[in-house]
Give the backbone structure.
Amino acid sequence: MNEEPTDAERYPTLTEAGRAMLKHMSEHPSAPLFRNRSGNRLLSEEVEALRAYESDIATAPFTWSANHPPAWLEAFTAQLYAQVPFYREQESPASFRAISTVHRGDLAADIARFVPDSVPVERMINFRTTGTTGHPLVLPSHPVVAGRYLAYHKRALRRFGIEPGHGCGQMGVMLIGMQRKCFTYVSVTPTMDESGLAKINLHPDDWRNPADRARYIDAMQPEVIAGDPISFAALLELSLRHRPRALLSVSMALSPGLKAALLDRFGCPVLDVYSMNEAGPLGVYDPGLGGHLLLQPGMYVEILDAEGRELPKGQIGEITLTGGFNFCLPLLRYRTGDHGAIDNSDAGPIILELQGRRPVRFRTHRGGWINNIDLTHALAPLPLSRYSVHQSMNGEVTLRLASTEMGYAADAVARLSTALLGGSVSIAALDTEDKMLQYTTDLPGGLGT
Amino acid sequence: MSTGPSLERLLRRLVETPPDFLDPPRHGGAGQLRVAAVVNDVLIGYGHPASEALLATLSGDLVGVTTNQLTLSAIMAWLLTDDAWRACHFPVSKLGTLFVEAAPALAAEADAKRYVFEPERREELARTTIARLDLLPHGETANQAADRLASVSGVERRRLLEASRAAEARARAIREALARKAAEESADKWTRE
């Protein structure tokens, strides 16, 4: 029953050229140890459909704006109430705004109840997410859904003047991680003429020789490199000659300092993509707009307060999603746990002041309160891949930095101390590789916003 | 779900079922009431003529379709000619399903005439018809309507039990599909969150 998939299942449309590309990526003398297997799993008719999908998404306009829902919302909601067990068990709502919101914990409790009846299970795949809120999730997906990510990445890249062009015999994208344990493999992208895809781990344990990391990237010459701030910070340490056409940063907030360092080093656009497993790529930070320009016209975004009331544009609240391109998990008023404000722009709706997870207030040395966003701003100029700030019951503040970035400790402490209007800030090492809650507090008033 | 006719009105309609509708239906050469024609006339009135398959089912020529099912279909057709339905918004495609699914299930449960002459069976037929057209009895909430239908209808209770079993089987199939090695390997995305 639980059989090992075959290569024919992993790459149903693989040609000789694609096979040669797989060999080139996996058997290069500087290649890392690829620890896993995976593939695009796309059937030929699905590849054609994805090309059409990419073309549609490239120019699809937003038919909704902040606080003005799209016309498709009513039919979408009715469909979910008819086809999704979780909703079918409930009374139909009097209006869209009367629909109870769901959050990660609801999905974690029994994800099967959120899958529409019409979705066949035979080719279902999953994406696992550990998260930071204590609700690990296994999310249902499908090879076509995974393939659709590229349509939104291209939409984001086009905003920065980049049109990916690598095809047969070239590497389209290299996904880089920096973890002790990382899922690594090679594949090809059928909609890009079987350009190569390699997911690698920059952790030295995955390489015969740590110097091979730079050699391999230089040899593969990926057109795009995708990663998170931690892996990009590691990339900066390598002596690469290769210059990709773009960097895609996902998973965590990319600090302006790190972004500037990447820009300076690689001389290409560095895209800060707001993306999550539950919804795919949602937005890309656009400096000209001062916020994350939304990418999915088929995903309606509301900003809600703690009681679930919709907030007017410009006010910060919880980012809540309806719609999406994952037909295995259509979202209906899904509270993401992330916060920000919504506004309109000529290019489409934007999210302003995007902050992961629940806002936390910190007590200043003089007894007042400041929001964690002020601490974000204070540390923004430093090229930190990640950090966490915690305030104890006695008001003491601890800043945790990656051990490789302790060189910025004195500067970071001084900046935090200024933001907190004085007082001491202690420093500690951040040793987790997983996503973590960036701002935490023991003070009862700290979660009061 | 939108509001349908009042239950009282439909119960009255059933009490007033003309004796002709209870005449033996044409079946295997005997009987006189042509149920297929009666039902088709009603469905045409809704702009949704009966399918060939439904006409064959109600023709009286199929051994597997009992006279009791045919009589119950005729009673249902009578119920659907009440003007109260005209003001309701429901998917007319459900009308065919009513005769294909609900009628045989109810006919298997009791003599068709009991759905006219016995108060509780009348309520079962009226409520079943309203529910299968995705409507609510006037003045009732979805929960009230579901509870009352389940309390008067053995057919509905079995249907709910089967639906619950089917839902659990589907959920189990999804959980198993997500746990397969192939699912764990996932598929290519250009970024991994």
Remarks:
- The radius of gyration of chain A is 22 Å.
- The CA atoms of residues 246 and 269 of chain A lie 5 Å apart.
